[in-house]
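Batch manifest, entry 17 of 40.
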Amino acid sequence: MDPGTGTDVTALAKVVARQRAEMERLRNVAAVTAVLERAKGALMATTGCSPDSAHEELVQRAEAGGRTLLEECWLALGALLPPEQQAAATAGLEPPGTADTRSAAVRESAPAGTGAIAEVLARVGRDLVGVGSPQELAGCLLEHLGPEVGADAVIFYGRLPEGGLELIGHAGLDAPLAAQWRRVPPLSGVTPLDTLETREACWLEDVSRERQGHLLIGGPPERWPSRAWLPVPGGSAGVALGVMRRRAGPFPRRQRELLRAVARLCAGRLRAFDAPQDGAGDRVAQSVQAVLDALPGATVLLTPLRSGSGEVEDYRIDAASPEAVDVFGRTGRDMLGKHILESYPSVAGEPLWRGYLDALTAKVPFESEPFAYQDVADGMPVTATYSVRAAPLGAGLLVTWLRHDPVERQEQRLSDVQRLGNLGWANWNLVTEEIAWSAQAYSVLGRTPARGPVRLEELPDLALPEDAGPLAHAIADLVRHGRPFDVPFRVRAAQDVRHLRFVAEAVTEPDGTPAEVHGFVQDLTPQRSAELALVESERAVLLQRGILQAERALAARLQHALLPLPSEPVRLAGLCVDVAYLPAQSGIHVGGDWFSAVELPNDDALFVVGDVAGHGIGAVATMAQLRFTAKGMVSTGSSLTGALGRLNQLLLHSRDSRTTATMVLARYHPGSRVLTWAQAGHPPPLLVRDGKARFLERPGGMLLGASANPVYESAEIRLEPGDRLLMYTDGLMERLGEGLDMGFARLAEAVRVHTCDPSGSLDALLDTMLGRRRRDDVCLLDIRVPVDGE
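Output type: structure tokens
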């Protein structure tokens, strides 16, 4: 062998050896670094701290326990494993003071099967640090647990105060299913509830066989044939972790251990959602507390406490001023760490609680309406007025109780009185000549504050000339003799005239000399305007009433002239005829009801009853026109139907073509005792025979003035001795709120009862039908057929 060559080989061997040693060292460093990173990830997940804080915490624990950093890392990882695994996880660790850690020691310190779990937990822990809600937490776990345990869905349920469950996070569930199972009532057999009660995991490895006694979350068994529910450690409310799989089968020991360790990781992450990071919240609270210690008044710093779903459940008091006090009498720093619903339980559900939420959500201050609150001062209850202001500060709220000063309240009340009463106060010091007006006084007098107030003796100059004299006299009497006054006057302001009232009194010296004048001036323009409008309205009403009364009187005289009433029953064509006419009691108009009962040239008798629509002189005039025209046409030989047709044309071509009327015409032939009759929209006559009353069947006929081509028909009836026939207007049987059929029935019964009235008077019948009040005119024609011998 060439010596030179041997030297080169030796040198090369040394280089290779150094490279192998360096590679071994790097592998050891990488192994230690991997263990360190896994331990930091687990610590970050369980406590919610930052990577630097996790590293510092591991170093401090190692120094305190006299262990190496690597040993402490394996202890941190082992804390996530079941108790029987923790000893194995730390077995073979080098005692304190040994040489540098080697990769072999790393491998020996991790027992078989646990290193893989620790590695998974480290990865999960690192990823959990970045999640910000239970929903993101579920998604992160599904990503890791899918390949590790075959998970197809991950569910987090939080226990509600009333005992049920609320879905606070999920992954692998579709939206309809999540909405369906968002809340679960506290029923027996609900597996996650049982898990929270027993604090033990529940493994449903073949749901089709094990569903007896279990209320399955998420639908039928075939949806998730195997499931696992584990309690998440810690937390007062309790959170259950559910892992759902689309295949049946057992959860092996390694998977169960991994899921238990993951549940412990989730406990730290769920707590971290509400905890301030890196102690920033504590530093803020300490800074705020230092400020509040030096401030008067009641102020507290609140940090919201949220449920797993993110809703604010309560607030924690992290800083409080010395004057802040709760319902238990705790003050200042004694309140720190307490909850609002504990210290002030009455705010739950109140507007104040909603105001806190609004300020926290919208990041804008909230100030409540003033409210009365009972304080205790010197042992005596004192009612004071407060308002509460909540302002966002970082992630919390700075809440201040503001007590309204009594002087401020009085000033506010005085201002409200002036504004609501539209008045302002004024004060004149007659000795110092100082003058003070309220802002409302300037407004009432129509004077700008920039011009300043006027002297008392100059106040009449603001009034209208006709009102200045009485006002000046009242002021002079007050200044000289101290007599108070209450004087109305007017001023001109902004092209309007205002009606004012000035009330004043004097404050006198001991000798009775007026020294000061104080009073108020009030704007009474709206009231005065209303009074004037009322007077004008009353005057118009009286005028209108006089006109209507005169019209009524004229119409009544005209009606009496055109429609004379006989003083007693009359005989016509062998019949006994009685008539009644009663005007309406309501209103001041005379109506258009009329009758006519006359003998015709051939000894027949004509009976007419009609009703013109409307009231007043116009109705009376139309009534007269129809009455005389109908009588003239029938007297000259016109048939009843022909007369109705011509009367209809008369109304259609009158000055007021809208006028309508109803009418019944009857012609009686005494020789045959036959009554022929026709009608135009009028109620039918009522026949009483042998004690029975019936309405005659109406022949066809439309009311007058309603149609240009109406058809009128006639009917006949033979009257017998003792018969009674009533022709009437609708005012006799109509009543407010009563149907026509009921009115007709009531009329038939009343006529039947009063037919045998020995006096023959219609008064009893009218009293029965009309009562005390009549809403319309009533016209009644009573026709009786005498019995032989009468």
